[in-house]
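Worked example 2:
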Amino acid sequence: MSGLGRSRWWAGVLGMALLLGCEGDDSLKQPPAADDGIDEGTEPPPPTQPEDPPPPDDGDPPPMGEEEPDAGPPPVDPDAGIPPVTGGGVPIPPDSASWRFLGTAEGGPREVLGVTQDEGGNVWVAGGEDGLCLLAPGAASLRCYTMADGLKPWAPWKGKDPAPETRYLKVLSVTGGPAGTVFVGYEGRPNCESEFYKAPGVGVVKDPSIYKSGDADRVELQADGTLRVVHYDIHSPAHSVPGYGHREKLCTVNRIVWDKARNSLWFASNHGLAWGEPDYQGGEACSSEEIRAANAWVYAGVEARQRCKFGVMEHVHPAIAMGDSTTSEDSRLAGDVWGVAVRPDGDVWLGSHIRTTRFKIMTNAVGHVGTGAPWNFEAARKQSEERKHRANRIDLWPDAVTEPLFPTHEQRKDDLVSDLALMPDGTVWVSSFAWGLAKMNDAGVVTGYLLEGEGDRHVSSLERDPRDGSLWIGHRWGKGLMRMHGEGEFVSHNPALGGRGGLPIWDIQTVGSGEERKVLVAFSAQRDPAGNIVRPGAIGIYSGK
């Protein structure tokens, strides 16, 4: 599938899945037994497009630094100790005086899907079809930018502009960068993930205006208020990835994370995770000589090939084989990526609709050998995807069977990860669009669950508060905005939101620290069954304790 689309996905995919669940209190629940399946017909259907054909399974990384095959996924640990990792101090009650809201009356978009701030204090808003919106420091109103201002939710194909009359703008995600710079993610057109892979036949046309839609931009604000835009064309040219031809899979960017310390961007997208170069200025190669050196390979024994192209490298996903009788063992189920968290060592936790993995981009030994470069994307990818590394494909809400067995449609309980929040002690809180919260330790072992009740479990966003270590929690529906100060100690902030707690909350970000910390909340729009906006969204800025 080409991403949630923030609205249309819910009717088709979660309409059945969200009927599951049980009422419960807010105490931390121990993980269920591994054979805790789900009832037939009540879980989301699998994505309709299998993974592109993988290279032969014997195409392992070079032996130097390679891990031994593992014994399977880490078990859930019902006896693990659960030290408190959030909060400290007395829970803070909601306070309307600490909030500032901006909506359409202040020039904001009708739909707010993401909100961030760059290092210069500019607040940027993912405004869906209304574009990218800016609240400059000290301003009372927002300015919104569209394709007419240079936004580019598309890329050329073979040097040509594919069908400009069919271009589609929907800004889904934003993350602030250096002063005046924001990284912007787009929704691709319907079927953008599968369009390039249509089976050949009479009358079959692969439309580049579909498979080249979406992706991301680097947007830089100019002194005169205009924008300088550089596009990230998230794809892999033919033979730039060992064992693959040209790839056009990723097109809808759900979240973006900027790892300033390692000069990296992470694009959480439909089907997988991609890396981007934050300083990319166009061209056909990443600018860092070290990165290029670490990701070069020899093609056909002679010609040097470069994996680092167009400022991006893609993609990785903790996919599993599909066990339905109508599919082959080589068909892999990947799912959309929504959760991304960069560990202190530079590795990346990523959570998808199917599995969660530690992408060992900074700790795989292969990238260090003989190059002096910090990391190797392909070696790390294999440590998440190859069959022998199944321990690194973590099933947070377990299916009825575990690898090496392949679950059938009826045996699956898809995790539907929506976000990740990394705590200072290495604990990871993982939210699900359907199942609430899971708590995972640094080793990837699930130690408990929260928010499993029917009205609690539709969680769409998480953010750790750097001021006190509490956890902000946004819901797709049900419970609005809450804050967890200690294990199971929740405070609802809905009374201070002026009714906005009934809107979907797709994104929460924090900026600053100490008393200067601010919490940015994206309150999306309410739509009717036909998809029309009947209640606009808003930007929320919280500056309280």
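The chain is about 5% helix and 30% strand. Confidence is low (pLDDT under 50) at residues 8-27, 32-86.
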